[in-house]
Amino acid sequence: MSNIRVSSHPLVAHKISILRNKNTKPKQVRELMREIGQLLGYEATADLPTKVTFNLESPLTSYTGTELATRIGLVPILRSGLSFVDALEDMVPTARVLHLGIFRERISLQPVEYYNKLPSEPNVDQVIVLEPMIATGGTAVAATSILKDWGIKSKIKFITICASRQGLENLMKHHPDVEVFVGVIDDILDDHG
């Protein structure tokens, strides 16, 4: 699973430890989700292509400006993925937010698409899917398939706080070109996925 990037950042590990504590209060959970999302987002955006813009003036000298060379789309998987949107928009204010609603059916654990607000034609060059947890991987596989069918040709990236090894293997089996930035990987899944 060479496209899986487990964060080695000490702040990510520290914040995930607090997030996973059963005694953490809801307000702190929301704050931690945003903070971890931003840290993982920083790692996921490290290789975005840039282009030279034009000469600018600082108080001391002139310099050549730089801007992102691709149009970025943020795709939160509703609703939990919304917890990352503000953090990523702060980092990439020009990013477009594209919503997908997919839930896992309780008995079969299969993904069901219930909401899709993608435009008829892609208006972004690259997407970052925001999904705080990858359990069985079914939702991640479905979201990736939807985005590829929509016309995304470049690398699709996922930002997730916690993923199961089984879910990542499932995603890589169906979409080996996807890159996943994850805070922690769990080795087991329970009967409920």
Automatic annotation (TrEMBL):
It holds the Pfam family UPRTase. The keyword GTP-binding applies. GO terms for molecular function: GTP binding; uracil phosphoribosyltransferase activity. Its EC number is 2.4.2.9. Transmembrane segments: none annotated. The keyword Transferase applies. Its cofactor is Mg(2+). Residues 6-192 form the Phosphoribosyltransferase domain. Keywords: Allosteric enzyme, Glycosyltransferase, GTP-binding, Nucleotide-binding, Transferase. InterPro entries: PRTase-like, PRTase_dom, UPRTase/APRTase. Gene3D superfamilies: 3.40.50.2020. Pathway: Pyrimidine metabolism; UMP biosynthesis via salvage pathway; UMP from uracil: step 1/1. Belongs to the UPRTase family. This is uracil phosphoribosyltransferase. It comes from Cetraspora pellucida.
